Amino acid sequence: MAESVIKETLQACNFLKNITPEHLATIVEFCSLEEYKAGDYVFRQGDFGDDLFVIVDGYIFLERAMDIGSHKGSVVIDALGKGRTLGCWSTLLGESHVLMSSASCQKDSTVVRLKGSPLRKCMEEDTPFGFFMLERLSFLLRERIQAAYGAMDKI
């Protein structure tokens, strides 16, 4: 059952829009389903991160702690629901990366964890797939930057 949920979730998410059935079958092999309770964190700002996450069900805030003069606390960068993607692609870049935000579950949530190391290996071994993934990651990065700028405007 988990494999079918993973496959359906990845097929339906915008992040992997237009993925080939062959590449989908490959990456499903190194995905897992994870469940979190409301109030849990999928990851925390300052941790090292390597994986991507696609929300199967639930609601997750991307938050950034801040300390800018008199402005201290956290700001919500984005509120993500079913089918949305979050996480870090440092493994895809081949170097360690400290997470710049936290992902907190606002209600019970289930996510697909897509492991970064095997994804990078697939990208290196299959140039067209690697280009496809880099393009998809670029769109995700653009979306996050736009959300971060929007959050900054509210400060």
Automatic annotation (TrEMBL):
Annotated CDD domains: CAP_ED
InterPro entries the record matches: cNMP-bd_dom, cNMP-bd_dom_sf, RmlC-like_jellyroll
SMART domains: cNMP (SM00100)
Domain named Cyclic nucleotide-binding: residues: 15-87
SUPFAM superfamilies: cAMP-binding domain-like (SSF51206)
Name by which UniProt lists this protein: Cyclic nucleotide-binding domain-containing protein
Natural source organism: Desulfosarcina widdelii
Native organism taxonomy: Bacteria, Pseudomonadati, Thermodesulfobacteriota, Desulfobacteria, Desulfobacterales
